[in-house]
Design goal:
- The complex is a heterodimer of chains A (about 425) and B (about 210).
- Helices cover about 50% and strands about 5% of the residues of chain A.
- Chain A has about 425 residues and is of the alpha/beta class.
- Chain A folds into three domains: about 120 residues, Orthogonal Bundle (Fumarate Reductase Iron-sulfur Protein, Chain B, domain 2), CATH 1.10.1060; about 150 residues, Up-down Bundle (Glutathione S-transferase Yfyf (Class Pi), Chain A, domain 2); about 120 residues, Rossmann fold.
- In chain A, the strands form two sheets. In chain A, strands 5-4-6-7 form a four-stranded parallel beta sheet, sandwiched between helices.
- The longest helix of chain A has 18 residues.
- By secondary structure, chain B is mostly helical.
- Chain B has a domain of about 120 residues.
- In chain B, helix 2 crosses helix 9 and helix 3 packs antiparallel against helix 5.
- Chain B is globular, with a radius of gyration of 20 Å.
- The chains are: A alpha/beta (about 425), B mainly alpha (about 210).
- At the A-B interface, helix 2, helix 3, helix 9 and helix 17 of A face helix 1, helix 3, helix 6 and helix 9 of B.
Chain lengths: ~425, ~210
């Protein structure tokens, strides 16, 4: 078991209950009712596979949520409650589950892919985090702290509109690319990942280069920009919705038809599949991940790229492929670039997470677990003998970067977006 | 209608209603696929989740195979045994040729052996030990008894036919009474769960 640090004296049990129950509809109830305790999900989870610790069995991670459902809402809740068939939540039990719900789950959904009963366990973990966050049990160092800052300021690092405007202008100057910032009208609105702002500013220059080439009116908007949505992974549902609403409102205000999500897996899942629910109806803008936008324009012939002679492999971000349905787009791009792709074992929908997804990269104490999970990816990448690994998620890129450096890799980790920007054909 | 049948039907109805009548959250995001494709995705997933993807076989293959030996054995006994076909004919008016008694006895023996191995696995595998609840063990006994009494009934060695038949029927009624309340409910939930997942992931254009 991971050291989860100081144990709080009290957790807000009633808020945890509300957080658990608020989202339960037929789909979640069906999932909670269906488990036959076959244990197959353990064999799909990197944390169990690497540690052999049965606590990391995915369906076990949502046990408190399931118990709460049985006591409070299930068809036999009266029997559960009055016969004492399942214990009530306590600060101690919630705290003991913290590392299972956060540290050892990337919400990668590999368990959902194997479950013979069709249980979407990753979705259940996301809902479980809502209860944990409400109880005040999101790991403070750093995930919870970043989520709080994001909720308060709109950016996990407190990036203000003015600061972003300055940064984008500087990036345009540094990379010699024309930037469009806060234009009164734009068809295409790209959003930004905080990881890119802090670590990979070149990716914003790459987006600008590509959108300039596509030629439709576009603009970064500093009114609602930070798509990272740390709140989602922390379980702060209100924060998650607030961030989403800010981005959508800004895009609608400038007449956008397409909202482009950056190289960030969870931000895509949130905006593509969850945002409309917070909005209450289908969004009036189309949501595309940047690789989808590029692939679409390559396929329509509106964006041309040079053929490059390069051998590489590609790491699928779970939220883009398995959870998001955008598995094909990066491969369209790599094919157009003429890259000799040495696919990873289990590439595409059955890929393994890099180890940092689901906010695990933002939990300091989870590093040993993260490293254990990364070991699978490391082995797979090394087996391809490719000198470069591309990805379309800055979170994955960062995890691969850090893991590779620790391992003394000569393999380069790079962004598919930046590869396209560097190889636009005249 | 027997009390056991009444409890079975009412219990299943209650449990399914309790799940399906919860307030439904409408998914507003624009689907990648039209309704027909999503429905097909749900239907296809009912079939495809029957076996894990090939990449998972090395880690789960043995457990899955053992589980299928048990399930297929039970299917053969239930739908191939002459007495069971007669009961089905009396209730539903349909019938089919029965399998030789020897085949049913062998299938019963294999099913029983598989059940015992599954129990041993549950008692010794760290993950299964952790996940298991009283429901798992009650359900095991509830399924074991009809198979065991069925074998004894075919041999008529340890007691009279009447006594063994009574025990067999009682054990089946116990199964019917327990089914709606425990994991045996997966006889219906497996279809609903797989369909729902297949539908939702087809909506996203993601693998099911």
């Amino acid at each position: 078991m991971n050291d989860i640090g100081p144990v709080p004296k009290t957790a807000n049990i009633s808020k945890a209950l509300r957080g658990f129950i608020a989202d339960i509809g037929p789909t979640i109830a069906l999932s909670l009712e269906s488990c036959v305790h076959c244990g197959q999900c353990a064999e799909a989870c990197q944390f169990y596979v690497q540690t052999s610790d049965p606590r990391y069995t995915p369906i076990h991670k949502i046990e408190l949520f399931k118990q709460t459902y049985n006591r409070e809402l299930g068809p036999f809740s009266l029997a559960y409650k009055f016969l004492g068939l399942t214990p009530a939540l306590t600060t101690e039990t919630l705290t003991n589950w913290q590392d299972l719900v956060y540290d050892s789950c990337n919400m990668c959904g590999r368990c959902s892919l194997i479950c013979p009963m069709g249980i979407d366990i990753a979705d259940l973990v996301e809902t479980t985090r809502h209860g944990m966050y409400e109880a005040g049990l999101a790991p403070a160092d750093f995930l919870g702290a970043l989520a709080e800052k994001e909720h308060a300021t709109g950016s996990p690092f407190g990036l203000t509109s003015e600061k972003l405007r300055t940064l984008l202008t500087e990036i345009g100057t540094t990379h010699n690319v024309e930037m469009h910032i806060d234009e009164p009208h734009a068809d295409i609105v790209p959003t930004i990942s905080s990881i890119d702002v802090k670590t990979y500013p070149g990716s914003m220059a790459a987006i600008a280069k590509i959108l300039n080439r596509i030629g439709k009116p576009w603009s970064f908007l500093t009114g609602g920009f930070d798509a990272d949505n740390v709140s989602l992974t922390a379980g702060d549902r209100a924060g998650q919705d607030a961030i989403t609403q800010g981005i959508v409102s800004a895009a609608i205000a400038c007449g956008a038809t397409t909202l482009v999500m950056p190289e960030c897996g969870h931000s895509f899942t949130e905006m593509r599949w969850e945002a409309a629910n917070a909005y209450g109806k289908d969004l009036p803008v189309r949501v595309l991940q940047i690789t989808e936008l590029i692939a679409e324009h390559i396929q329509s012939g509106k964006l041309r790229v040079n053929k490059i002679k390069q051998t590489a492999t590609y790491h699928d971000a779970c939220q883009l492929s398995r959870r998001g349905g955008a598995t094909a787009a990066p491969r369209v791009i790599l094919a157009a670039l003429g890259v000799d792709v040495h696919e990873l074992e289990d590439a595409g929908d059955a890929n393994w997470c890099c180890g940092g997804g689901g906010g695990v990269a933002l939990i300091k104490r989870a590093q040993p677990l993260r490293d254990a999970a990364f070991a699978i990816k490391k082995k797979q990448i090394e087996a391809t003998a490719a000198p470069v690994v591309y990805t379309s998620c800055s979170g994955c890129r960062q995890t691969l970067d850090h893991g590779g450096k620790s391992a003394g890799w000569t393999t380069t980790v790079s962004s598919l977006l930046e590869l396209v920007a560097d190889n636009l054909a005249p | 209608m027997s009390v056991a049948t009444l409890i079975l039907v009412a219990g299943m109805f209650w449990r399914l209603s309790g799940i399906l009548l919860l307030r439904r959250r409408v998914a507003h995001a624009a689907a990648r696929n039209p309704l027909a494709v999503r429905l097909l995705g749900g239907a296809v997933t009912i079939v495809t989740r029957t076996l894990p993807r090939r990449t998972f076989w090395p880690r789960v293959g043995a457990g899955v195979a053992l589980s299928y030996v048990f399930h297929i054995g039970l299917f053969i006994i239930l739908f191939g045994g002459a007495p069971h076909i007669l009961i089905i004919r009396d209730i539903f008016g349909v019938s089919w040729p029965d399998l030789p008694k020897g085949v049913i006895v062998i299938a019963s023996g294999i099913t029983l052996a598989a059940l015992i191995l599954l129990l041993l696995r549950r008692l010794t595998h760290p993950v299964l030990k952790l996940l298991s609840t009283p429901d798992d063990y009650i359900s095991w006994i509830i399924v074991f008894l009809p198979v065991a009494t069925g074998i004894l009934l075919s041999g008529e060695t340890v007691a009279s036919y009447g006594t063994l038949l009574a025990l067999h029927i009682l054990s089946v009624e116990a199964l019917m009474i327990w089914l709606p309340f425990g994991k045996l409910m997966h006889v219906s939930l497996v279809f609903a769960g797989r369909f729902m997942l297949g539908y939702n992931f087809s909506r996203k254009g993601a693998a099911t």
